[in-house]
């Protein structure tokens, strides 16, 4: 990362408050954070520290109570729901802990889904893109299978393919190994590392597992809704 580079994602003084009955919870407070193209950022911290809230704001799934959020230097706060959806589809890929695959759709159809919102792309182009991504995650031979016919590790590989098929600017992963055993967790982390190093995919990952922090080039730690550490590190081989 070069200091002169323009940030891909940027948060300026972002806070998030949840109001329930008479209880106010400050999930995030004065978050200043820039993520640059090609980085692999891991976000860690104790349960309830604001990790998932931060990722939701980065992914345009939630909006901050205060502060500003920029993607490619463009402010997000003035965009309506339709415009935010377009930005989310074009710029952001998601990998969730629970895979979030659609059970009555094949592997191919699940991966193709983000591309169906791009009317300018032909069916042939969509097919080529889907098969390319399935090849990257080693799942081409499962293209016509349904999620229930796959192991957890295989489902997460399909979810990763779906997240990158639209060639987003950044991949956001929320506890991507949380529902996997150690062997499958290691395999998914290896896949994410290869996407970052070989495909140059920018990744921002929330994890509770300290073993996987070393895969990232940068480690951010949250505590009580605040960034308490932000360290550039050498990723483990």
Describe it for me?
The chain has helices at 51-58, 81-91, 107-112, 123-136, 152-164, 182-198, and strands at 9-20, 23-35, 40-44, 66-71, 74-75, 92-96, 170-174, 202-206, 218-223, 226-232. The strands form two sheets. The protein has a six-stranded mixed sheet, sandwiched between helices. The protein has a four-stranded antiparallel sheet with strand order 2-1-4-5, with helices on one face. By secondary structure, it is of the alpha/beta class. The longest helix is centred in the last third of the chain and has 17 residues, at 182-198.
**Structural class of the secondary structure composition?**
alpha/beta
Strand order of the largest sheet: 6-7-8-3-9-10
- Determine the number of helices (DSSP H or I, runs of at least 4 residues): 6
Low-confidence stretches: none
What is the element string, with H for helices and E for strands?
EEEHEEHEHHHEHEEE
Q: Total number of β-strand segments?
A: 10
CA gyration radius, whole angstroms? 18 Å
């Amino acid at each position: 990362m070069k200091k002169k580079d323009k940030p891909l994602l940027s948060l300026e003084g972002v806070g998030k408050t949840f109001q329930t009955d008479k209880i106010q919870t400050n999930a995030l407070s004065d978050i200043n954070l820039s993520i640059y193209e090609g980085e692999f950022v891991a976000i860690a911290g104790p349960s309830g520290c604001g990790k998932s809230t931060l990722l939701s704001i980065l992914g345009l799934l939630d909006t901050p109570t205060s502060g500003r959020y920029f993607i490619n230097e463009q402010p997000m706060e003035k965009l309506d729901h339709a415009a935010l959806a377009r930005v989310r589809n074009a710029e952001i890929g998601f990998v969730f802990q629970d895979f979030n695959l659609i059970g009555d759709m094949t592997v191919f159809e699940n991966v193709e889904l983000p591309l169906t919102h791009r009317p300018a792309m032909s069916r042939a182009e969509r097919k080529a893109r889907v098969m390319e991504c399935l090849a990257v995650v080693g799942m081409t031979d499962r293209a016509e299978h349904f999620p229930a016919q796959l192991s957890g590790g295989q489902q997460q590989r399909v979810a990763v393919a779906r997240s990158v098929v639209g060639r987003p600017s950044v991949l956001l992963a929320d506890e991507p190994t949380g529902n996997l055993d150690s062997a499958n967790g290691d395999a998914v982390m290896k896949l994410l590392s290869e996407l970052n190093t070989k495909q140059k995919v920018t990744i921002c990952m929330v994890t509770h597992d300290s073993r996987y922090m070393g895969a990232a080039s940068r480690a951010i730690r949250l505590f009580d809704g605040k960034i308490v550490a932000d360290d550039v590190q050498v990723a483990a081989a």
